Amino acid sequence: METKCNCAIRASKELVTNLHRDGLDRGCIATFSDFLTIRQSFTSDENLLHQSLNSLRNVASGDTCLYDSISGVIDRTFRRNAYPSRPWVLIVVTDGDDNLSSMSSRQCSREIYDKFTKEDNNFMFVVGVGDRVNASKMQEMARAGYFDYIPVDDFLLLELAFLNIAYKVTKSLSLSLNNLAIGDISATWAEVQQHRQLSNVAIDYALLVDVSSSMNDMLRPQCFAGHDLRMVNGEYRENLWFCDVCGKDGPSSKTSEFHCSSCNFDACPSHCEPGRQCKPISRCLEDHPMRYVNIPGTWICDEDKKPYIGRHLRCEQCDYDMCPTCLTLITLMENLALVGR
Length: 341
Ligand SMILES: [Zn+2]
Ligand SMILES: [Zn+2]
Ligand SMILES: [Zn+2]
Ligand SMILES: [Zn+2]
What we know:
Blueprint lengths: L3 H16 L6 E7 L3 E8 L2 H9 L11 H16 L6 E7 L10 H13 L5 E7 L5 H11 L2 E5 L5 H16 L15 H10 L5 E7 L19 E3 L23 E5 L4 E2 L24 E3 L4 E3 L6 E3 L2 E4 L4 E3 L1 H17 L1
Parallel strand pairs: 1-6, 3-4, 3-6, 4-5
Antiparallel strand pairs: 1-2, 7-8, 8-9, 10-13, 11-12, 13-14
Helix pairs in contact: 1-2, 1-6, 3-4, 4-5, 6-7
The structure holds zinc ion (4 copies).
The site of one zinc ion has 7 residues, from loops.
C-alpha cells in the first residue's frame, strides 16, 4: 500500500511535468511540519524540481506548522527571490489542522492578502486533503486572504485538484482566447500543456507540501462519509458485525478489519480499496449512499409500501427504506438503462 506522502509526490510530479516549461518558468519546492524547509529554491531546471520531489519520500515527521510556513514561504522565497514582473503562484497541500504556529489564522490571512494576493497577477491555492482538515476555518481564511481553498476527500483526488488549479492558472494567463469553457471539468493535462505552450507569460510558482507525521499513513479504504476505515478488535466491540455495504454477516469474530468509529460502519474486504470510499449497493432518491440497518420490529418499504421485518437498506437522512425485491428491480432497471445507452 502507498503512503499519503508518496501519493502527494506523484501528483506534484505530474503538475510540474505539465505546468513547467523548462528554462522559462521557475518552480520552488518547500515542505512544512514543525518548521518550513525550502528544499529547492526557484529554478527553471525541471529536473532539479523532480529530484527535489523524489527526495521527499522518507522525510515525513512532526507536527503541522501551517500558518507560519505559508507566511515564511511568501517572505523567504517570493518576496526575496521571485521576479516582480511575473505572476506568482503558490500551491499549498495539507492533510491536517495547524497545531504549532505562532501566528493566528487571522494574522496569516492578512499577511497572505497584504504580501501576495493583493496583486491581481498572483494566485494562491490551498488544497485540504481528508477529514482532518478544519474545512470551515480554511474557508474563512480563504475569504479573508483572497485565495482559493479546495477540499478533496482523499489523496487519490489530489492530482485532479492540481489539474484544476493548473487549468485555472493557465486560463488566466493565456493571451489567446480558446474555445474552452471556464469551469470545464473535462480539462486534461494535455490541454494545460497546450495552453502553456501558447502563453508568452512566464510564471514563478512554489509548491508547499505538508510532511507532518500523518503523511506517513498508508492510504486507507473509507466509509461512505470519507472517514478512514481501521481495524477494530473484539475487545472493543459488543456484538458480531455485519457489512454496512452488502448486509452480509461478518466472519464469526468481533474483529472488523475495516471499521469507522464515527459512523459505526463496517465493510467486508471485498468493498475496500486503498484511498477510496466503499461503493454503495444502491442510493436513495436524493442520491445518498444507502446502508444496511437492523431495525427491531416492522418497517415499510418506501417503494412498494409493504411492511417487512429484518435487515435492509436505508437512508437515514431521508428516512427512506428499501426491501430486497425492490432493490433487485431497481438494480435491474439501472443495468438495463446502462446497456441501452
Ligand atoms: Zn459486504
Ligand atoms: Zn465514517
Ligand atoms: Zn437520502
Ligand atoms: Zn419494496
